[in-house]
Specification:
Length: about 240
């Protein structure tokens, strides 16, 4: 069973290979709608918008959790991941992967063993697609209808940070300057939460980001720079079909 909805301004797709109930898929979509109500910086009545306006002092449990995880990621990446910018807080760099992982846990706790969840290109895959590993395509940043690499994954997360869809919106927290050297950076990790946050942080490091991933145990990366050159970490090839 497969279903897609637009939530958080993103296409969110859930596919469950196991025999399943529509109500379970709808419960997961309901969770993403809750995430949008709490964390969207575009909704004036969201919790994060009210925090940025100084209207809330007592944060929800999930907001506190995201703040703690963001600070942990900031320390782990030498400050290259930072949700604070120009006096406001934008946790979107960690919320998407975190919420996909939480959504995955909802299905896992219901007993599902084979499924995937995608939100805006960030994906968590669990088990298999029938009798085969899940196949995920990596897009050509200069031609979004072209797939330049296909990877096969099982019980993994994959996330891509880039400027080819939303424009040059990723910056170096240390210099406060936008990153111009990178176009796309895809990260594979043990889950989508880790893939998403590390992809964001590594992209903000510029061309050094791929070396950062190279030295992280359990992570692999695929970088495309502004000159159309691709750089892969040592073991990324083991996922390529």
């Amino acid at each position: 069973m497969k279903k897609t909805k637009i939530i958080m301004g993103l296409p969110i797709t859930i596919e469950i290979v196991d025999k399943c109930l529509y109500s379970d898929i709808n419960e997961v979509f309901g969770f993403f709608e809750y995430i949008d109500r709490v964390f969207s910086t575009y909704k004036k009545n969201s919790e994060i918008s009210k925090i940025n306006k100084g209207l809330i002092k007592n944060y929800s449990k999930d907001m506190k959790t995201v703040f703690v995880l963001a600070e942990k990621t900031k320390k782990e990446t030498d400050g290259f991941f930072d949700i604070k910018f120009r006096g406001e807080i934008d946790p979107s760099g960690i919320v998407k992967g975190w919420s996909i992982k939480k959504a995955s846990n909802i299905l896992k706790n219901k007993g599902y063993k084979n499924y995937y969840i995608e939100a805006g290109g960030d994906i968590e895959v669990v088990g298999k697609n029938l009798d085969k590993e899940w196949k995920i395509g990596i897009r050509n940043p200069w031609n979004l209808e072209e797939i330049i690499k296909v990877v096969k994954l099982k019980n993994k997360g994959i996330a891509t940070s880039g400027t080819y869809i939303r424009g040059n919106h990723i910056y170096n927290p240390h210099t406060k300057k936008n990153i111009n050297s990178n176009i796309s950076l895809t990260v594979i990790a043990n889950n989508v939460y880790n893939a998403d946050r590390i992809a964001t942080a590594a992209f903000s490091m510029g061309k050094e980001g791929i070396n950062f991933i190279e030295n992280l145990k359990g992570y692999e990366g695929y970088l495309i720079d502004n000159k159309k050159n691709a750089t892969l970490t040592s073991n990324f090839n083991k996922y390529i079909i």
